[in-house]
Each structure stands twice: as structure tokens, then as C-alpha cells.
Predict the 3D structure of the following.
Amino acid sequence: MEKSPDAFRTISEVAEELDLPQHVLRFWETRFTQIKPMKRGGGRRYYRPQDVELIKGIRHMLYDQGYTIKGVQKLLRENGNQFLVAIGNGDLAAVEAIAQRKQTEAVELTPASQPRPGEEEQLVGQPKAKPSRRFFGLGKADDDGPVQADGGRLSRDNRALLQEALFDLLECKRLLDQVR
């Protein structure tokens, strides 16, 4: 007898449907707070249909797309559950609509959310400066380095270079994790 699509599923049913071991589902509950199965007496888990759809999206991003757990957590934080549900279902129109909505929200910054004069803005994307010998400590005096003399803070250009290096390292880590 087939269950209704709106029926709750046990952990064994979800594991079989998504071809995942049960312990992986339990582990993902600890890493993704968005997965919240209902627990009954004796600790039995019952997954709602929306939980199963979210897990399907998480599984797709981790196993098929090669994302790390942190990468999927970031996607959830930035785009919400519906984004991963749409990806898991292969609904490209919904994925595109969510992405467009996020882009529109980013463009329509309110004056209160724009950086005030003197505030630091987060650097994202391409670095504003090219690496220099001074940045890497070559050909500099002891008091002239990547840290500015006023307050011991990195200059904006050097922060951009460090952020780019961090992105490169994270991408290398993602590729290595994918090979393992």
C-alpha cells in the first residue's frame, strides 16, 4: 500500500527513497538546523514532506554538485530553504526566480543599509590591487609593511588580496574534498 504524498515518513523510508544511510540523515540534522523531523516516543523520527524535499536538495548539492557542508549551509543562509527544495526537484524556473529576486533585493539597497562614510564595506569579487613586492614583505623597511601604521589594520588593497587568496584556498579545499 502506497502512502499519501502528504504523509509523514520514517527515517528508514526517507533513507530508502533518497538512497542514503540512516546515520547520514541523523548527522545532517546536526549540521542543518532547517531539517527538523518530528520525534515521537522512543526517539522515532517522522519526516514531513517539506523535510524530505529539503533533504533531497541538500543531497543533490553535496553528492551531485560537489559542495561541502559549509557551502550548502551558506546557500541555505543566503537563499533560503525554497531554493534548495527547487534544486532538489529540478525546478530550474523556481531557482532562476529566487536568484532574480535576490539580485533585485541586492540592487535595491535602502539608504539605511548602505555603508555610512567611514564604515568598512565587505570586499567581494576581484581584488582592487595587484600583488606587490611590498605586500609579500620583499624590499620593505621594518616599519613599512602590509599593516598600516595607524591602528595596526590592513589597508583596503591588502585586505582585498587576502580575501582573494582565501577564496582560492577554499576552492582548492572544495576540489580536494570532492576527490576524496
Notes: The first strand starts at residue 9 and ends at 10. The two ends are 40 Å apart (CA to CA).
